[in-house]
Specification:
Blueprint (H helix, E strand, L loop, with lengths): L2 E2 L8 H7 L6 E6 H15 L3 E2 L1 E2 L1 H5 L3 H11 L3 E4 L2 H10 L4 E4 L8 H6 L3 E4 L2 H14 L3 E6 L11 H8 L2 H5 L1 E7 L12 H13 L7 E2 L16 E2 L22 E13 L4 E2 L5 E2 L4 E6 L21 E4 L2 E4 L9 E4 L12 E5 L5 H7 L4 H7 L5 E5 L4
Parallel strand pairs: 2-20, 3-11, 4-5, 5-6, 6-7, 7-8, 8-9, 9-10
Antiparallel strand pairs: 1-17, 2-12, 12-15, 12-19, 13-14, 15-18, 16-17
Length: 389
C-alpha cells in the first residue's frame, strides 16, 4: 500500500460499477458540466481579458464533438485548434465562433483554411507572404494572427523576420491582423526567470507590428498574474481539470475519471514472478489483482515496476495501491495485499479521478498529465455527464 485517501468518504465504486456495461473493460467518465464550469472560472479569473479555449487533438482526447458545444454554451466564442482539418471539424460544430489554427499556414492550405472560415496563426515570413498573396489574389483582406517567437524557439516569427516584416508594410496591408501572440516555455514554474524574459521580448516584438489584441498565456501562463493576460488567454489543459502550475492552484476541478474492471485476483507465493519477463517477483506472500486496462488504452508501459522499484499506482476502495510487473497491452497487475477491504473479481480500480489526479498518474508513468490525457484510448466505454448528455 502506498497511501490512503479519503478513508472517511463514501466509496465511489458502486456508482462507477453501475456505469460499466457487462462487456466493457472500464469507463472513461467525462464531465461536460465541469469543463464548462472550469472555463467560466478561468474567464472570471482573467477578466477583463477574454478567455478562449484550446480544443486541439480532439479536445485533448475527450471528444471535440461533445466538448466544443458545451464550451460554446458556457459562453466561449474563441477556439484554438492545431490543424486545418481540426478547424474544419470545429467549424462544423459552431458556425459563429472565431477559430484559430495554431500550427499556422501549411504550404498550399489556404483554400482549406478559408473553407473552414478559420484564422491561421502565421509563424514565419513565408507564411505571411503566402497568406498575403492569396488575399491580393482574391481581392479581400484576410484575417490573420501573427505568432512571434519570444524564446521558445519552436514556431514563431523570429526577431529578424519581425524586423523584415515591419519593413514590408505591403504584406500586412492585405491582411486584417486580429491577434499578435506568442507562447511561454516555462510557464508552469513561476520562479523561472525565462517567463520575465519572454514577456519583455514579446512586448518588444509586438511593438514592431500592427496594433492588435495580444495573447501570451495558456493554462499555466494565465496563473503568472494579470500582466501576462494581455487581451486573450488560451487555456487548454486546465479546462479539463489539469493542474500543472507549480504555484497557486488554478480555479478548476477534475473533469475526467478513468476506471477499470478487476478481472481476477490471485495469491502469489514468495518468489513468484508477475508479468512479462518476470521483472517483478514477490518478496512476501502477495495478493495480485489484474485489471482490464493497458497501454492500448493509453496507460503507458512506463508505469511498470520491477522488483525493488516503484511505478504507477491505482486506487481501489479508497486506497492507493502499487502497480507491479509490466503494464501490457490489455492488462495491469496491482499488489492489493495491503488493501484493508478485500479486493475481488468485479471490483473497480480508479486509474484517474478524484483520488488520483492526472499529474499523479503522469508521474507514475514518468511523463506529464498532458500526455496521459491525450493518449487515453477509444477502447474504454465513454460516459458523458452534463452538457445535455
Amino acid at each position: 500500500m502506498i497511501t490512503t485517501r479519503a478513508g472517511s468518504q463514501a466509496s465511489p465504486f458502486p456508482t462507477e460499477m453501475a456505469m460499466i456495461a457487462a462487456s466493457e473493460t472500464g469507463v472513461l467518465r467525462i464531465d461536460l458540466d465541469a469543463i464548462a464550469a472550469n472555463w467560466r472560472a478561468l474567464a472570471r479569473w482573467v477578466a477583463p481579458a477574454d478567455c478562449g479555449a484550446v480544443v486541439k487533438a480532439d479536445a485533448y482526447g475527450l471528444g471535440v464533438a461533445r466538448v466544443l458545444p458545451a464550451l460554446a454554451a458556457a459562453g466561449c466564442g474563441t477556439f484554438f485548434v492545431a490543424t486545418p482539418r481540426e478547424a474544419a471539424e470545429a467549424r462544423s460544430l459552431d458556425g459563429r465562433a472565431r477559430i484559430f489554427v495554431l500550427d499556422g499556414l501549411f504550404p498550399g492550405a489556404t483554400d482549406d483554411i478559408l473553407a473552414a472560415a478559420a484564422i491561421p496563426c502565421l509563424a514565419s515570413l513565408a507564411e505571411v507572404e503566402e497568406w498575403s498573396a492569396h488575399a491580393r489574389r482574391i481581392g479581400a483582406r484576410l484575417a490573420a494572427a501573427l505568432h512571434v517567437d519570444s524564446g521558445l524557439h519552436r514556431l514563431g516569427l523570429t526577431v529578424v523576420e519581425v524586423q523584415r516584416l515591419a519593413a514590408r508594410p505591403e504584406l500586412l496591408d492585405a491582411l486584417d491582423v486580429v491577434l499578435v501572440m506568442s507562447h511561454l516555455a516555462a510557464a508552469d514554474d513561476p520562479a523561472d526567470p525565462a517567463n520575465a524574459v519572454q514577456f519583455q521580448v514579446f512586448e518588444r516584438l509586438r511593438g514592431m507590428l500592427p496594433n492588435a489584441p495580444a495573447s501570451l498565456a495558456a493554462s499555466d501562463g494565465l496563473m503568472l498574474g494579470a500582466d501576462f493576460h494581455f487581451d486573450l488567454v488560451r487555456p487548454g489543459y486546465a479546462l479539463y481539470g489539469g493542474q500543472a502550475f507549480q504555484g497557486e492552484q488554478a480555479p478548476v476541478s477534475a473533469a475526467v475519471s478513468l476506471f477499470a474492471r478487476v478481472l481476477q485476483v490471485r495469491d502469489v507465493e514468495v518468489g513468484g514472478a508477475v508479468g512479462y519477463s518476470g521483472a517483478w517477483r514477490a518478496l512476501r506472500p502477495s495478493r495480485i489483482a489484474t485489471l482490464a486496462a493497458g497501454y492500448a488504452d493509453g496507460y503507458a508501459r512506463a508505469a511498470s515496476a520491477a522488483t525493488g522499484t516503484t511505478g504507477g499506482s491505482v486506487v481501489i476502495h479508497g486506497v492507493r495501491l502499487p502497480i507491479v510487473g509490466r503494464v501490457s497491452m490489455d492488462l495491469i497487475t496491482v499488489d492489493v495485499t495491503d488493501c484493508p477491504v478485500r479486493v475481488e473479481r468485479g471490483h473497480v480500480a480508479e486509474l484517474i479521478g478524484p483520488s488520483l489526479t492526472m499529474e499523479t498518474a503522469g508521474a507514475g508513468m514518468r511523463t506529464i498529465g498532458y500526455e496521459v490525457l491525450t493518449r487515453l484510448g477509444q477502447r474504454m466505454q465513454r460516459v458523458y455527464v452534463g452538457g445535455g448528455a
